[in-house]
Amino acid sequence: MKSILAVKNINKTFYSDWGEVEALRSISFACSKGEFISIVGPSGCGKTTLLRIIAGLENPNEGEISIEGNHAKGPGNDRAVVFQDPRLFPWLTVEKNAAFGIQNLSKEEVKSKLDSILKLVGLENFRKAFPYELSGGMAQRVAIARAVAFKPKVLLMDEPFSALDAQTRARMQLELVNLWQKTGKNIILVTHDINEALLLSQKVLIMSSSPGTIKETVEVPFSYPRDVDTTEFLRLKKHITSNVF
Amino acid sequence: MKGLKQIMTSIKSQTLKRNISDISLSGKIIRGLTFPIIVIAIWEVAARQAIIDPYFLPSPSSISYTYIDMLSSGLLQTHLLTSLQRLIYGFFIAATIAIPIGILVGKTRTFRHWVNPTLSFLQQIPPIAWIPIFILWLGIDEASKVAVIVYAAFFPIFLNTVQGVISVDPKLIEVGRSFMLTPGEMIRRVYIPSAAMTIFVGLRLGLSNCWRALVGAELIAASSGLGSLIMDARNFSQADRIFVGIFTIGVAGLLIDYLLRRIESKLMPWKKMYQAGGQS
Ligand SMILES: Nc1ncnc2c1ncn2[C@@H]1O[C@H](COP(=O)(O)OP(=O)(O)O)[C@@H](O)[C@H]1O
Ligand SMILES: [Mg+2]
């Protein structure tokens, strides 16, 4: 199987006036085509830093990211980020926010693309709304639409549902699996919610902190849609829980 | 569907809020007008009882007759238009210089260090103080007056643009970066819209600064414009004309600011959310 994304031996230390923090140590993993990977770990273990390095928003001290075998330095068309907060542009409507990253398309093409993507995230009736008129869940869906519309090979998500209420989160999780299956994109999802990781992804990377390392990689063999109450699911969850905390 | 309902109720509660503030707005207008009306009434009575000498302070009614006279002869409009024309020239020149430079300076920290002290110094000098030298350099005609206005508008626009660019949310800049914006696109699609509100504050300040500086310049040296109208009236000891000039300056200033506010809310409909807490 050919790997889309390869993370090779990443080290990252932050230097500041009051000292240094070793955030990541020798992180390596690969993501094969169409794979949905999640990264779990306690708060402060370096998940966001790792995702930002993959996104090209932060430089590692050592190691490299490659996409389809090519060294990736800085941000690229092949990756798009959904941040922890929606980060919408307050002066743009929902559709213009969603279209923010679209390049080199005619008006009609943009429109048809937006139609399908906004439908996918269930916002087709809110095209003209401004961010301040949206609930947190809707705003995060616009952020997801914006990232998907960019047509990246890899979708990077940093705890995208953590600010949502339980009900909305559950619905968005289903929608994300739906979107992944429809678009066939690679997804890397950072979360501190083990249940979420097991519900959504095919592989879970478990991180530990100080410095952040990958402690274990767990394959999730269940088919979709997943049932959280089976004994296998619960056993895996228990295994990971005892590993993370 | 549930989401739609939520939005509807939130929109409803917003309009409700707006209505409440409308009521207080009309209340504000009434309260705001009460004081001048009382003053004018007392003034009128005092003038009719001949308590004050009309040579120094003509009665409001006689001022309004003069006002109507000057309007019907077209004299007032001519002077007003001359002043407005200068204002518009100067203001647009100032804005086209100040905004690009402001963006540049705001984006470049080192540049800021180089120019800040100089700017702080220049900012202390009232525009009127430059009039003599501008006249020496540019002559007594339009150019010197426009130069004063450009100077008067420059700093508020420039400084607010810099401030607006400095306070662009770094998180949004990062979004721009992750979507591979070129430097030009970054300025056009992230910096300028982010800073737009602050820049507009600068434009409004700049325009009212302009207006005041312009009238000042016209008082000192001009053969047309509202300032010169007032000066002429003084030479002929026509207090009523002076008051008509002053009144027109004030009202025109208010209308200009109102116009700019309207443009602002048309251009930036998303601004509403920031205004929820009420405004100055
Ligand atoms: N820009 C930065 N400067 C200094 N230290 C940082 C910076 N970003 C993250 N860190 C540190 O790196 C560690 C990992 O942070 P982060 O990646 O945000 O963890 P997580 O997302 O897993 O909660 C933390 O100790 C944090 O304080
Ligand atoms: Mg984080």
The H-and-E topology of chain A, N to C, reads as: EEEHEEEHHHEHEHEEH
Report the uncertain regions of chain B.
274-280
Overall mean pLDDT of chain A stands at 89
Strand content of chain A: 25-35%
Q: Structural class from helices and strands of chain B?
A: mainly alpha
Choose one word for the global shape of chain A: globular
Assembly context of the chains: heterodimer
Residue share in helix of chain A: 25-40%
Order the strands across the largest sheet of chain A as they lie in space.
6-7-8-3-9-10
How many β-strand runs of chain B?
A: 0
User: Helical element count of chain A?
Assistant: 7
Strand element count of chain A? 10
- Corresponding CATH architecture of the largest domain in chain B: Orthogonal Bundle
**Tally of individual domains of chain B:** 2
What attributes does this structure have?
heterodimer; A: 245 residues; alpha/beta; 6-stranded mixed β-sheet; 4-stranded antiparallel β-sheet; 7 helices; B: 280 residues; mainly alpha; MetI-like fold; 2 domains; 11 helices; binds adenosine-5'-diphosphate; binds magnesium ion
Structural features, described:
The complex is a heterodimer of chains A (245) and B (280). Chain A has 245 residues and is α/β, with parallel strands linked by helices. Chain A contains seven helices and ten strands. In chain A, the strands form two sheets. A six-stranded mixed sheet of chain A has the order 6-7-8-3-9-10, sandwiched between helices. Helix content of chain B is 82%, strand content 0%. By secondary structure, chain B is mainly alpha-helical. Chain B is globular and about 75 Å long. At the A-B interface, strand 6 of A face helix 1, helix 7 and helix 8 of B. Bound molecules: adenosine-5'-diphosphate (ADP) and magnesium ion (MG).
